[in-house]
Amino acid sequence: MTSTVPTAVQHTDAQPPITMFGPDFPYAYDDFLAHPAGLGQIPATEHGTEVAVIGGGLSGIVAAYELMKMGLKPVVYEADQIGGRLRTVGFEGCDGDLTAEMGAMRFPPSSTALQHYIDLVGLKTQPFPNPLAESTPSTVVDLKGESHYATSVDDLPQVYRDVMNAWNSCLEEGADFSDMNRALRERDVPKIREIWSKLVEKLDNQTFYGFLCESEAFKSFRHREIFGQVGFGTGGWDTDFPNSILEILRVVYTEADDHHRGIVGGSQQLPLRMWDREPQKIVHWEPGTSLSSLHEGGVPKPAVTRLDRTAGNRVTVTDSSGDIRTYQAVIFTAQSWMLLSKIACDDTLFPIDHWTAMERTHYMESSKLFVPVDRPFWLDKDEETGRDVMSMTLTDRMTRGTYLLDDGPDKPATICLSYTWCDDSLKWLPLSANERMEVMLKSLGEIYPKVDIRKHIIGNPVTVSWENEPYFMGAFKANLPGHYRYQRRLFTHFMQGSLPEDKRGIFLAGDDISWTAGWAEGAVTTALNAVWGVMHHLGGATDGTNPGPGDVYDEIAPVELPED
Prior knowledge:
- This protein is of the alpha/beta class.
- The chain contains 16 helices and 21 strands.
């Protein structure tokens, strides 16, 4: 539950750290970002050229920032607020330092490209209190009305350790876990490709649940049920059971679900600080230039309402203010369903098979509700048992996952009363924030009958259901079985040399374009792909000592499955 690493893998300090290096596209984005030669350059004749960046989430801001450094003029369009699903909110009437993460709230150390930008803007991180994590004082697992208190997995009944061992065996036997984990650590591209190409062909049509059922280790329905409700790393995974097992393997291979950290002060600070940051090394623009200074009033342009192909293979963008502008290059970072609904699009923007891939994209629903409390009362000790009076909680009740977040023993704190996905999220959709809170307090009251959570609440709850957000319509992409080919089309779209000229110039980016949707790392890396694509489209190139993702594409291109 706390580790996705089978016991067969013995980690030592001498081993390289794991990163989100593949397995689909094993390119070292962290090395690319760290190289002194930079990400590339464009011809001086193109300096100052405007490039539209649609979407002011992390992917859009990273892309715009890197384009600006090259001497281009990014024009960012944002329908709502800078940050996208990096959304940090406060509580009305409470101290401004008391915040809640409505979207991304925990980030694995394997997100090394993301960490580059966290370090760049001077943000700090701290351990995130996942179930049974070292930084989590205690965890309660409550299933079928029976609760178990634990400070480590060893405190849980044997059946939970049996489930953990079954999961490790399942990974080893069905997905070559140890070999792939080792190859990723060593960045052994031939070995990665050898293992993954076989697994993609074998498992593309398999669900997560079907993968479990095929394992002798998970022949017990009870074990599968417990695993679905408690899972590993961040908690229960039964909401992912219908999804492609390839999606899950990407997570566990790269340890994306382990050792999470949160950004001190809130994750939305990252794109906001990048918006205002003045790079020291910048081409064409005067020192002191920032994305903010390149936009009138320091704010992005409003929502895009229309996209058209126009003469000379340009793309014309119409926004909600009625402003119409035409660009040689456009990066689209919003969720791809926006191109099917909110934005009127010319069919000629993309090849038909890319439209099909966007239409087939499967999004996961997700809901959260936070309340502010007077102090971290959960650290009080029960007089009878000596245990914490309340713990990080995993349950099969409506709340599913409850997280306790504090900044010190005497300071106001927050509780994420519930974090749910898919069907569990849809159950909350018709309810208001206060109605949701009442159901959650009732569920938690059944687990902690001695604890009066309500008396500690000092402000109104804040909530989100991402499926109901008009510019998102879901939390993140999760491929269904058989979707590998669709995802490959979207991810590889930045390589436009083989496309007809009238289909070039608009580039897709964002975490749902990546192989690791739901993780900010995918937003960053696809932004860097799109930056390379724009640079190449405008006649630029990388330095020979620091080849970009497009320069080495033919050597590491994602596995291509036959269409017939």
